[in-house]
């Protein structure tokens, strides 16, 4: 409501002021001379009165609002060319509603209204307040409206400012939330506001007409009487303090700010003053000064942090004890010197000066960070430096630098980097050692197992056959141990990458169960499997690693169970977001169980339930460590529930992505195949080790394959250049030419273009992480590690 009243007052003031001013002007008389006159648009009179008139004038068709004509002054004012403005309608320029504009045009035609105040839009979008004098004019026999337009924006704004000033005065003083008082020439109260009364506790009637000195503390009365005449002559006061007496007898320290009001002749009229109760502020200021002193002493005596202060000219104004120790300059030596002359290295001087200037002038702060400065002795000083810009009581900017010495941290960091490099070097040495050991152990193991399989194929009596089976079982056990060691090494080094492929979960678990049936039958154990019907048939994840976890747990259960059962239950726990389901596996047995003490360390590498020389159960203690690490890699969880001499339950849960059905399921579980149907007829065996070469040759020949042998890659290239082979079994590490180089040359066509696509299978003792990828990149089609299981080899060959 107050805004509406202000707008009405503003309109009335503008109308009155402008009308009074414009009515006395020749401009209006020139414009309104058109009223009721008849012209032809080509008349010289028309051109004289309209076209060349310096008053902004428009000719408007009252029927449709079209602008029929505009003079040069109008084109200049609105920012349109004559052609452009003639295409406009008055509705395009006048911001008032079209309905109101039509009504006003009819008033002008009927001469019931001739003077209007509008807001017009210029070509550049700017809005201007205008006064328009309008009336009828006849041009070439038709009735038009002439409009003389006067820009009153400046007057309008002036009047608005005057009204706003009056309103502000009322709100700032009379209605303000701060105490206000007005005194006459004698210092008597003329006006006080409600806030004044609330602050000091008086009623308005108790003070108006009384002298200001009556509410002053006795110590301040003389001060007022002496300085009030000066205030009247100067015309304003700012921050003048008095101690006032409240109605309840207490006192308040206040700060006055005010100006005097004058009559039109410049003589004194009254004072206008507001004050703030600064009693609490003064107490806080004293506390702040004491606190500042304490903190200044703190920064001066702080040993770990060097603090320096600089003025706008980068001259030192503060230099604490830590700065003296860090940079080597005493406070007396540093004070007054420039920053760049003390601790800034030569190559950084100009940059630092520029950065400080930008902060001072443009407000672009210097970021915190590590920087190497320079001590008095010229040696580098690494610090972490932060910067703060403050404004002092005089309004001048001061920059403070807070530096933390990084010398010891840098030294420790160098040691850490060195230790890291040593650790990485040791890790590489370990990986190389494991790779070499894997190769050196698998190569003779392959020969041992191969020769024993050949031996088993001969005529043996029952006792001899038992010895051979024992030797093969021992070799397999050694191979499994070697595989566990390499698996653990790959996992701990972070080189194990989980596969992400679709597989049939139910069929995978069924195949896993079939693998353990013979072992359970051998020990007379019942093998119990339960698969929840709610489980999705197809899932996506690392099938081989999932089977490895289940197999390790089942193998453990069978090993430590003599009577009873071994079981595996698999349940659907529910959705876990992102098209994944949570699957719970429970592997249980009725075996020897695990004590509470043993449960704490059961997942540690090489941990065993038996810690004596009398051991009933064999093993290196790697299986459960691998199980835990693989479960964690699959974002799963694992826990044990076991009772000594009763049995054990192992719970592990993993998220698996729901997969899609496929006509061909890639079930990567050991599935021995006895049939040799589909195997290649002719094989090139490339192997430098004689025992391995002989055993592999004989084993392949027993499967009705024709085998040609080569001792190195060079011989293989020669044989392949002259003979046809269905497949090449290629060892990797060989003299003269290794298997990788031979594979590359075969693929490049060195053995003949017609043989460059021959199938090459790597037959190697290398089994470390990344080996398979390296061999495939060299041109191999498949990869089998030694010692070779005949069934696996025949499956790959087919």
- Which stretches are poorly predicted, pLDDT < 50 over at least 5 residues? 1-6, 13-33, 605-621, 663-677
Shape: elongated
Mean pLDDT equals 81
Helix content: 40-55%
Distance between the termini: 95 Å
Taking all Cα atoms into account, the compactness measure Rg is: 51 Å
Residues in β-strands, percent: 15-25%
Taking the sheet with the most strands, its summary is: 7 strands, mixed
Oligomer: single chain
Determine the number of helices (DSSP H or I, runs of at least 4 residues): 27
Number of strands: 28
Output the structural class.
alpha+beta
Describe what you observe in this structure:
Strands 17, 18, 19, 20, 21, 22 and 23 form a 7-stranded mixed sheet that branches. Residues 1-6, 13-33, 605-621 and 663-677 have low confidence and may be disordered. This protein is α+β, with helices and mostly antiparallel strands.
Supply database-style keywords:
single chain; 27 helices; 798 residues; six-stranded mixed β-sheet; alpha+beta
Itemize the secondary structure elements and their pairings.
Elements: H1 2-22, H2 26-32, E1 38-39, H3 44-51, E2 56-60, E3 67-70, H4 72-78, H5 82-86, H6 90-93, H7 98-110, E4 115-121, E5 127-139, E6 142-151, H8 153-174, E7 180-183, E8 189-192, H9 194-200, H10 204-207, H11 221-234, E9 236-245, E10 251-262, E11 268-277, H12 279-301, E12 305-310, E13 316-319, H13 321-327, H14 331-334, H15 339-342, H16 349-362, E14 369-374, E15 380-391, E16 397-405, H17 407-456, H18 462-492, E17 501-504, H19 505-523, E18 526-531, E19 538-541, H20 543-559, E20 565-577, E21 580-589, H21 596-599, H22 623-633, E22 637-643, E23 647-658, E24 682-686, H23 690-702, E25 706-710, H24 713-722, E26 727-730, H25 739-747, E27 759-764, H26 771-777, E28 782-785, H27 790-797
Parallel strand pairs: 1-5, 18-20, 24-25, 24-26, 26-27, 27-28
Antiparallel strand pairs: 2-3, 2-6, 4-5, 5-6, 7-8, 7-11, 9-10, 10-11, 12-13, 12-16, 14-15, 15-16, 17-19, 19-23, 20-21, 21-23, 22-23
Helix pairs in contact: 1-8, 17-18, 17-23, 18-22, 19-20, 20-22, 24-25
């Amino acid at each position: 409501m107050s805004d509406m009243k202000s707008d009405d007052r503003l309109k009335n003031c503008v109308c009155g002021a402008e009308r009074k001013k414009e009515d006395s002007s020749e401009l209006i008389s020139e414009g309104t001379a058109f009223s009721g006159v008849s012209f032809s648009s080509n008349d010289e009179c028309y051109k004289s009165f309209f076209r060349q008139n310096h008053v902004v004038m428009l000719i408007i068709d009252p029927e449709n609002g079209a602008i029929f004509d505009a003079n040069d002054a109008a084109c200049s004012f609105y920012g349109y060319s004559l052609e452009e403005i003639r295409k406009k309608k008055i509705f395009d320029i006048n911001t008032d509603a079209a309905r109101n504009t039509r009504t006003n045009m009819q008033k002008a035609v009927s001469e019931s209204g001739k003077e209007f105040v509008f807001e017009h839009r210029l070509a550049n979008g700017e809005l201007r307040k205008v006064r328009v004098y309008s009336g009828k004019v006849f041009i070439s026999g038709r009735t038009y409206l002439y409009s003389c337009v006067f820009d009153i924006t400046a007057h309008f704004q002036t009047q608005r400012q005057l009204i706003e000033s009056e309103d502000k005065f009322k709100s700032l003083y009379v209605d303000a939330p701060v105490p206000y008082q007005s005194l006459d020439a004698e210092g008597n109260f003329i006006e006080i506001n409600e806030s004044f009364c609330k602050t000091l506790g008086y009623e308005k009637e108790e003070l108006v007409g009384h002298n200001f000195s009556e509410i002053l503390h006795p110590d301040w009365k003389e001060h007022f009487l002496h300085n009030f005449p000066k205030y009247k002559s100067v015309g304003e006061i700012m921050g003048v303090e008095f101690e006032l007496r409240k109605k309840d007898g207490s006192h308040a320290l206040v700060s006055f700010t005010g100006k005097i009001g004058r009559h039109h002749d410049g003589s004194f009229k009254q004072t206008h003053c507001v004050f703030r109760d600064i009693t609490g502020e003064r107490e806080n200021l004293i506390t702040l000064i004491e606190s500042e002193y304490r903190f200044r002493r703190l920064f001066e005596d702080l040993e770990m942090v060097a603090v320096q202060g600089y003025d706008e000219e980068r001259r030192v104004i503060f230099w604490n004890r830590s700065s003296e120790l860090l940079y080597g300059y005493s406070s007396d030596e540093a004070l007054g010197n420039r920053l760049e002359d003390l601790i800034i290295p030569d190559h950084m001087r100009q940059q630092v000066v520029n950065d400080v200037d930008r902060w001072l002038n443009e407000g672009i702060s210097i970021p915190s960070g590590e920087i190497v400065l320079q001590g008095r002795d010229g040696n580098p000083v690494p610090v972490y430096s932060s910067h703060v810009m403050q404004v002092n009581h005089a309004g001048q900017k001061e920059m403070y630098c807070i530096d933390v010495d990084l010398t010891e941290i840098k030294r420790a960091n160098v040691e850490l980097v060195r230790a890291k490099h040593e650790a990485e070097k040791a890790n590489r040495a370990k990986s190389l050692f494991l790779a070499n050991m894997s190769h050196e152990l698998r190569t003779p193991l392959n020969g041992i197992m191969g020769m024993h399989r050949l031996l088993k194929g001969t005529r043996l009596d029952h006792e001899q056959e038992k010895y051979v089976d024992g030797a093969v079982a021992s070799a397999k056990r050694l191979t499994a141990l070697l595989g566990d060691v390499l698996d653990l090494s790959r996992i701990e080094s972070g080189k194990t990458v989980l596969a992400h492929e679709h597989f049939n979960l139910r069929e995978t678990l069924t195949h896993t169960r079939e693998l353990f049936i013979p072992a359970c039958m051998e020990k007379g154990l019942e093998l119990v499997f339960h698969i929840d019907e709610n489980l999705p048939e197809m899932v996506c994840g690392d099938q081989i690693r999932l089977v490895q976890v289940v197999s390790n747990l089942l193998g453990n259960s069978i090993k430590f169970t003599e009577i009873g059962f071994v079981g595996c239950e698999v349940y659907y726990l529910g959705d876990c977001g992102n098209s994944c389901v949570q699957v719970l596996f429970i592997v249980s047995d009725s075996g020897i169980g695990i004590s509470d003490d043993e449960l704490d360390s059961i997942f540690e590498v090489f941990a065993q339930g038996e810690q004596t020389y009398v051991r009933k159960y064999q093993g290196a203690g790697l299986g459960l460590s691998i199980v835990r690490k693989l479960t964690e890699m699959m974002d799963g969880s694992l826990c044990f529930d076991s009772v000594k001499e009763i049995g054990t339950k192992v719970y592990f849960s993993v998220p698996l992505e729901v997969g899609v059905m496929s006509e061909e399921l890639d079930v990567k579980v050991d599935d021995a195949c006895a049939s040799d149907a589909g195997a290649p007829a002719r094989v090139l065996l490339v192997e430098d080790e004689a025992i391995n070469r002989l055993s592999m040759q004989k084993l392949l020949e027993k499967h009705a394959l024709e085998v040609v042998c080569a001792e190195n890659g060079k011989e293989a290239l020669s044989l392949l250049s002259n003979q046809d082979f269905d497949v090449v079994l290629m060892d990797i590490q060989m003299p003269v030419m290794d298997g990788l180089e031979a594979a590359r040359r075969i693929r490049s066509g060195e053995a003949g273009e017609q043989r460059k696509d021959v199938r090459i299978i790597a037959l190697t003792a290398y089994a470390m992480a990344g080996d398979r990828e390296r061999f495939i990149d060299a041109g191999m089609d498949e990869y089998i590690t030694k010692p070779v299981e005949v069934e696996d080899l025949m499956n790959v060959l087919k």
